Amino acid sequence: QVQLVESGGGLVQPGESLRLSCAASGTIFRINTMAWYRQAPGRQRELVAAIPRSGSTTYAGSVKGRFTISRDRNTVWLQMNSLKPEDTAVYYCNAALIRSSDYNAGNYWGQGTQVTVSS
């Protein structure tokens, strides 16, 4: 069994910062890629940032230069600076990994954490 537990969401004013964290635990042999997605009301879930084992990062154009994704083994963080109202969404952690129970690949999601940017 694999679990992803997120923390760090909240309510902030425009221009402020938040740091999200996500810790993966359970029957994990190896995590290949960890990522953050977000979903705003009435919109599709979208990729915010991703970081594979190599450490090379990918960002959505709307967050590039403001958000930073980082990783240490089975934990991933998302540092969000200069937040805007349009960043308001539920943020989800995602992990593409190999399970240690059967050495098969799996894709797992956290429960989501709300980020609200409002004055």
What does this structure look like?
- Helices cover 0% and strands 61% of the residues.
- By secondary structure, the protein is an all-beta fold.
- Strands 2, 4, 5, 6, 9, 10 and 11 form a seven-stranded mixed beta sheet that branches.
- 31% of the residues are buried.
- The mean pLDDT is 96.
Distance between the termini: 41 Å
Beta-strand portion reads over 45%
What percent of the residues sit in helical stretches (DSSP H or I)?
under 10%
Q: Which runs of at least 5 residues are low in confidence (pLDDT < 50)?
A: none
Q: How does the overall form come out from the CA principal axes? A: elongated
User: Averaged pLDDT, please?
Assistant: 96
Q: Which H/E pattern describes the elements?
A: EEEEEEEEEEE
Largest sheet: 7 strands, mixed
Report the count of strand segments. Answer: 11
Integer-rounded radius of gyration: 14 Å
Structural class: mainly beta
Q: Count the helices. How many?
A: 0
Which helices and strands occur, and which strands form pairs?
Blueprint (H helix, E strand, L loop, with lengths): L1 E6 L2 E3 L5 E9 L1 E12 L6 E7 L5 E2 L7 E6 L2 E6 L8 E11 L5 E5 L3 E5 L2
Parallel strand pairs: 2-11
Antiparallel strand pairs: 1-3, 3-8, 4-5, 4-9, 5-6, 7-8, 9-10, 9-11
